[in-house]
Amino acid sequence: MESVRIPEFFEVGPNRPFLLIGGPCVIESAALCREVAAGLQEICGRLGISYMFKASFDKANRTSLDAFRGPGLDEGLQILADIRRDFGVPVVSDVHEVAQVGPAAEVLDVLQIPAFLCRQTDLLVAAAQSGKVVSLKKGQFVSPWDMRHAVNKIKAVAKNRLMLMERGTTFGYNNLVVDMRALPVMRSFGCPVIYDATHSVQLPGGAGSSSGGQREFIPTLARAAVAAGIDGLFMEIHPDPAKALCDGPNSMPLAGVEPLLAHLLEIHTLIQRQVAEGEG
Length: 280
Known about the structure:
This protein is α/β, with parallel strands linked by helices. It has helices at residues 30-47, 73-87, 98-105, 121-129, 147-155, 182-187, 218-228, 257-279; strands spanning 4-6, 10-12, 19-23, 50-54, 91-94, 110-113, 133-137, 162-166, 169-170, 176-177, 193-196, 202-203, 212-213, 232-238, 252-253. Strands 3-4-5-6-7-8-11-14 form an eight-stranded parallel β-barrel, surrounded by six helices. A two-stranded antiparallel ribbon has the order 1-2. Strands 9-10 form a two-stranded antiparallel ribbon. Strand 9 and strand 10 form a beta hairpin. Helix 4 (121-129) packs parallel to helix 5 (147-155) and helix 7 packs parallel to helix 8. The protein is globular. It starts with a strand and ends with a helix.
């Protein structure tokens, strides 16, 4: 498996530093984004973890019509550009349609394809053709082995610019389950695999007009995923999840991030050592 290079910053993959992709679900304000970016940059610097800031400029897949979606493309990309410049970290956000790819690629280091859109061929090809690294989320409705078809759509254009992300599988109504077998299966496609620890505890539509969540299970599932051998972790992180405008019930409190990451890093280091000894 080859690593993926985020130009100007770092590489993601085997024998590379562990990666955290983190930030609020959606851009609520520039001030909130800066608070979270500053906190996570400091934490990751202390722990020796690579860090990428994530927040959505537009959440086009909210449950209800009146749900908060974010500031939109132009304002959102400007906020993300400022984060990148001022904190010296790469930035990633969702693209939901082909028309967003061009403007987003001018600012973002990584284009994220939402799970619901993982089979949208035109969007995948456009993202690959942008020249940027693509982060592709496995759909809740797709088996891990069937993700090879989406992978091939991108790799036909962008061979070494793809990361895969696991975020759980639909398990009945308003519930998700994480099959840890998905992580090595998707890693066998030759791409770094990131585990989305916060969307995996989401209860889609579970709060009626919005999604619920069980954030108390974030540490448990994150530990299991790191032990299974992943290359990085994705978490939606908020200073006060109870007041978050999107995905609060499944967001990680900013204050709890460092102790969790420190523990996960110990597990990751152990697994890396065991893998190296096995190969030796």
